[in-house]
Specification:
Blueprint: H1 2-29, E1 32-46, E2 54-67, E3 73-86, H2 87-91, H3 95-99, E4 109-114, E5 118-133, E6 136-143, E7 175-185, E8 188-195, E9 204-213, E10 216-225, E11 228-239, E12 242-251, E13 254-256, E14 265-267, E15 271-281, E16 287-295, H4 307-312, E17 321-332, E18 335-343, E19 350-361, E20 364-374, E21 386-395
Antiparallel strand pairs: 1-2, 1-21, 2-3, 3-5, 4-5, 5-6, 6-7, 7-8, 8-9, 9-10, 10-11, 11-12, 12-15, 13-14, 15-16, 16-17, 17-18, 18-19, 19-20, 20-21
């Protein structure tokens, strides 16, 4: 059995090597760009009421390619390979299903191996073509569509919602979509995007109008997501040198019954979320950033029971109120310290995330980061314990 597994692994590695060789040959024939990184991430987690820590290791390699096919066409492919080893893999049934990408039409991923305490996974998470014609731009394929203006919570990012705690995926998730942008000016455009799905209930179709007024950038959006209408707006600017941003999204009401609660989540009336965000950098590099998120249908206790239903309704949190606070400072020209926290003022749970980044040598960075969750059972942040991370990242 081990010989068969070794042979299958060797074949997969050869296929990956062939792909990289093929890309290198393209580089000799056409204008071609390649960059990426290799990361090693160690983590140690202690869950609430547990006596032992789970230690895990991740090797993460990424390759970004950009081929300037013609004067009007650019083709982009980006892929990543991840190798996990540790106790979380060993003690989590079907761990591979938790890390796999979820796309309806094109499976551009592969399970390289799947053993008791280690898994290997590779995927192409960007594959699209950009076509330019005058003021018109057409993008077709797996791409990231980011419409948000705030930096922590983005209710108007209806195609690719993100979590600020997912710090190790800088590129952020993508979506298979068709996107048309028409630039009406240097800082204004009209945009249409359509993400098909096998199930008609999961289709997303929306439009965006972007313009500048009073030295502020404004976005207006409207569309349909999962058979529910939505509309929203966002802005980005500054007040006397301090950044000031915000977003607002309202959508058609809907109620969902969580499986572990007798209470429904949602509303037949319209559902809305808004975010206010501000930040400022002082002359000595000290940085402060504050954001507040409000959901009109958010709950005030047992928040964790409703988190999946909140995501299904397009909310970034099941809480009624959420607060983000960040401080950062350049300790030396090569070292930066940061601490931020997420706080639920209703159920009193929180997560504190201190970190230090250090540039070891050119293109090699060291990150030390901790996540300390605190709260009672069933609160938003009360059931995750604490995790310490050490990461080395080499970019090329």
């Amino acid at each position: 059995m081990w010989l068969k597994n070794a042979a299958e692994m060797a074949i997969k590695i050869l296929l990956i090597f062939f792909l990289l060789t093929l890309q290198s040959s393209f580089a000799q024939l056409s204008p071609f760009e390649i960059n990426g990184y290799v990361k090693y991430l160690f983590s140690s987690t202690r869950f609430p009421n547990a006596s032992e820590r789970y230690d895990d290791h991740l090797i993460h390699a990424r390759l970004n390619t950009r081929w300037f096919t013609t004067n009007n066409i650019t083709t982009v492919m980006e892929m990543r390979i991840k190798a996990y080893y540790g106790e979380t893999v060993e003690h989590t049934p079907n761990y591979i299903n938790l890390i796999k990408g979820n796309y309806d039409f094109l499976d551009l991923d592969a399970v390289l191996w799947n053993e008791k305490s280690t898994v290997g996974y590779g995927e192409i998470d960007r594959l699209y073509m950009d076509w330019y014609y005058g003021k018109l731009e057409l993008t077709l394929g797996r791409q990231r569509i980011a419409w948000g203006t705030s930096w922590t919570w983005n209710p108007t990012d209806i195609f690719n919602p993100i979590s600020v705690l997912d710090f190790d995926y800088e590129e952020r998730p993508a979506v298979d979509a068709v996107r048309i942008q028409y630039y009406t000016g240097a800082v204004s455009k009209v945009e249409l995007a359509f993400a098909p799905a096998k199930n008609a209930k999961d289709i997303i179709a929306a439009g965006l109008l972007s313009f500048n007024k009073w030295d502020y950038d404004f976005n207006l959006i409207g569309g349909i997501k999962k058979e529910r209408w939505l509309a929203g707006a966002g802005w980005s600017g500054d007040i006397k040198g301090a950044g000031f941003r915000g977003e607002f999204l309202v959508s058609q009401g809907k109620e969902i019954s969580p499986p572990l609660s007798n209470n429904t989540f949602g509303s037949d009336d319209p559902i809305y979320s808004f975010v206010l965000s501000g930040d400022y950098t002082f002359p000595n590099s000290f940085y402060i950033h504050t954001e507040v998120l409000h959901n009109n249908i958010g709950v005030q206790d047992q928040t964790s029971l409703y988190q999946q239903q909140a995501l299904d309704l397009g909310l970034l949190s099941a809480a009624k109120w959420s607060v983000y606070q960040e401080f950062a400072y350049d300790i030396t020209p090569l070292m930066r310290g940061t601490i931020f926290g997420l706080f639920n003022p209703n159920d009193k749970s929180c997560v504190i995330v201190p970190s230090v980044t250090y540039s070891v040598i050119t293109n090699l960075d060291l990150l030390l980061l901790g996540m300390f969750f605190n709260g009672n059972d069933l609160t938003e942040y009360g059931n995750y314990g604490s995790t310490l991370f050490i990461r080395l990242k080499y970019s090329f």
